[in-house]
Amino acid sequence: MHTRWRWVLFGLGIAVAAIGPLAAKDGPWYAYLFGGLWFLMGATVAWRTFNLGTKLTAEGLTSHGLDHQTTVEWCDVQGFEPKRSRNLVLFHTITPAAQLRRGTHVLTELSLLSIKKDFVPRRTAQQVTELEQALAKHRKTCSVCGTQPKALAPPQGIVGRLRARLRELMGGNGDRSIAR
């Protein structure tokens, strides 16, 4: 899952990388330095955009941004919801967010900017539906967080059952009142 920003950032990175050698051409020593830095910055942005987006794996969600990589395990996710967030520092948009046991993880790399006001909520709702389907698929097969029945205790013989029952009866009062 990725957005068109991946291609916009790739083009921007290539453009900045191309400007670097042009700035260094036939210049003084500092033109070579700054041209090399421009080339390095542009090439880094272009290279990092190849992994930009959210990948659904068997272990969970892997979010790749320009400057970070975050993995959230499926068993930690309780659900998904659309949430308002900031994209590209100052633009507000709607993006899917994973509701975790401890907090929320906003998938900012899936956020959209569009001049069509009805497109962003519809696309975000589609992404939330895809994420919920992937979570439901995980829960069908996971014995930790899913609905699979847990393994039963091995069957005991008559002596084992009698011991367990006696331990239960003779285990003391616990938090029951003595007066009945």
UniProtKB/TrEMBL annotation:
Highest taxon of source: Bacteria
Alphabetical keyword list: Membrane, Transmembrane, Transmembrane helix
Transmembrane segments: 7-23, 29-47
Name of this chain's protein: PH domain-containing protein
Taxonomic source organism: Lentzea albida
